[in-house]
UniProtKB/TrEMBL annotation:
Transmembrane stretches, start-end: 267-293, 316-342, 362-384, 405-428, 440-473, 494-514, 727-752, 777-797, 817-840
A GO CC term attached to the entry: plasma membrane
Localization terms from the record: Cell membrane
Pfam family for this entry, one: MacB_PCD
Domain ABC3 transporter permease C-terminal: 272-392, 731-846
Membrane topology: Multi-pass membrane protein
Residue span, MacB-like periplasmic core domain: 19-235, 497-694
Native source organism of the sequence: Streptomyces shenzhenensis
Lineage: Bacteria, Bacillati, Actinomycetota, Actinomycetes, Kitasatosporales
Main localization of the protein described in the UniProt heading: membrane
Domain of life according to the entry: Bacteria
Protein name per its UniProtKB record: ABC transporter permease
GO molecular function term, any single one: transmembrane transporter activity
Amino acid sequence: MTVLKTSLRNFLAHKGRMALSAIAVLLSVAFVCGTLVFTDTMNTTFDKLFSVTASDVTVSPADAKSEETPQNGVPLSLPAATLDRVKTVGGVKSAEGAVSSMSVTVVDSADENMGSTTGAPTIAGNWSDSDLRSMEITSGHAPRGPTEMMVDADTADKHHLKLGDELRTIAQTGDVTARIVGIATFKVTNPGAAVVYFDTPTAQRQLLGATGRYTQINVTAAAGVSDAQLKRNVARALGGPYKFQTAEENADENRKDVGAFMDVIKYAMLGFAGIAFLVGIFLIINTFSMLVAQRTREIGLMRAIGSSRGQVNRSVLVEALLLGFVGSVLGVGAGVGIAVGLMKLMGAAGMELSTRDLTVKATTPAVGLVLGVVVTVLAAYLPARRAGKVSPMAALRDAGTPADGRAGLVRALIGLVLTGAGAAALYAAATADKATDGSLLLGLGIVLTLIGFVVIGPLLAGGVVRVISAVLLRAFGPVGRMAERNALRNPRRTGATGAALMIGLALVACLSVVGSSMVASATSELDKSVGADFIVEGNQPIVPQAEQAMEQTPGLAHVTRYKILDATLTSPDGKADDSGIMAADPTYADDLRRPTTEGTLKDAYGTDAMSVGSDYAEKHGVHVGDTLTVAFKGGRTARLKVAAITDDSSAIDQGARYTSIATMEKYLPKSQVPPNVIMFAKAEDGRQKQAYAALKSALKKYPTYQVRDQTDYKQELKDQVGQLLNMVYGLLALAIIVAVLGVVNTLALSVVERTREIGLMRAIGLSRRQLRRMIRMESVVIALFGALLGLGLGLGWGTTAQKLLALEGLGVLEIPWPTIIGVFIGSAFVGLFAALIPAFRAGRMNVLNAIATE
């Protein structure tokens, strides 16, 4: 009880000094809890949607998968006779045929895409009574003929659509223009999909290319019949190649498809929260180390009147427990706010999430509290242990915590060993022959060098701080020298404070090098390999209408088609490979200049010929002249002669196997021929500008496809990598904010620790302005120390990672020096900002009171 009272008294007495540490815990816990609440809310939204849209039992083609479209771009379907048979099955109350396709684009009269910009699908289908489970018609009526359609209310609101407007739906089977006669509203939250409905005959004809067919059959159970029993009845009656699912199984499949995407978001954000926690550990260690040092005499008195070493230790740990609990409780509440903010941000980007679905599971605050408290207590353990070692007599003489030179030497040796082992792992990764092996070594090297630099930080602080001071502080005379000595006074403290900033900046530097190298490598590869003037692609396969418009564009010397085929290859050694094959026109050999190790690529586009990649050829012992068995899915099996082996050191189309469009058509029926996933074009000599404008004009009616020349393509790559890096930098900003709080806290506690010293300096003539400058310079030096370590580590990590990318064909190393220099200069401003409050408080000290302080 005495320990608890003492801890509570000390905690309240130093609540101002604990505040920044509590904020660090709060931010870290808030990010973890916010991530969990946000992802749980998204899961709840999708769960409600899937549950309400699923029928008691659904019947679909055996090969149908909710997230995939067949290679020909037309959904798999069932004959109407199947529906008639299902209606006669015992236990069936009703059955309806449904038509649905996600391989569509919907545009308005100005050819503006009505679909989502966040990756959510655009869905077209037929309106039936089954849809009334999830939607209700709130305006107009359901479509009644080929010129009528209905849209969902969210899409109508987003694009200001109203009854009477016309929309054009583009599918692989053709275009259809219809007038909006109804608007339907979701009964649950629509995460962002755009949905349009037609009457059943129109949906069948326009989406499936034939009437009398359905993509699935929705079956409703009669009273007293369970879903499982109904499924057995229907399966027994139909037999054959069908897929039968209960409502729960259907929802689980859809949930699984979305879950993979959700897990990526969840674990990525939790990873950045973990980095923030790691940075916060240094802040907490520094805080308690300095508080213990400032209470040396108090600890000595406690020991002198009978407190044991364990009681002193527990007293400090209880303070940490209180700090962790308060910060975690506030963090849990802030986490809910972060989740709501993320939902609003996603809403602005086009993905709708409603606060009505806000989900705070019981495990979320439990995880936040446990994580925050445990991390805080563990971080405070070493300062608590050192506090327990203070002997009563040493403390009463103000000798402070025991200086253990041997412990410092051991620490330095451990740090050097870890750093050396990490450097060896990085070197091994950079010289690895396979990217998979090298990536494991890279991860090991990053972890070891990071821990090594943290451990060896105090040793590095002496040399690095002196170098920085020689460059920046000596010009400021005595004030600069005092700032340097203050930074060197406690190397362990300086090392821990700098390490907190080091972690975030190391990741920034590493990712900057990787991102810049990827862009530079891809740009170099484009310059070297791509001979086409124009590249056309989109987020949907290219429909025949767009392909025809492209082929009829004036000013083009040739147009190249490029298709991906589902096929199983069997090599001469009898090994099967189902990763498919590419079919292209012979002009593709000019559009993409792929080097070969054997043969020439143009020969691969002959009749019954193909090419393979060098990795495949080496693995299976394939050479030019060998014959491979190729089983085309939906078609016949062919024996194709290997006419070329392409060099897989190129990043573009690495590992691709090619055959000609003519060979594909020989073995694949017309109904199974897939659409082009990308198309290339070459302009006639001297007509590049005219052909570019003409091609853009020809494809204006199909806004889902982008026409890019090589300059556009390079800029697109740069923008995509830049957006990804900006997102990562934004998440890393949390760790950097916590690191800045660490610098502020260290300086604030240092000012308190040096109160008497500051009073004496003021008494002998140091002005307030000089005092503030000295503290600001000390802060800048600490920040630059952390920046130098972080940027050095990050450059090493990034360079090693690029060596692994070179094994995948991205062989250009580019160091983004403007970013690196900008981050280093920014670190100096971070130091200045962090010192504002401590310097201001130091300048306001009363000189006489400061001198009288014990």
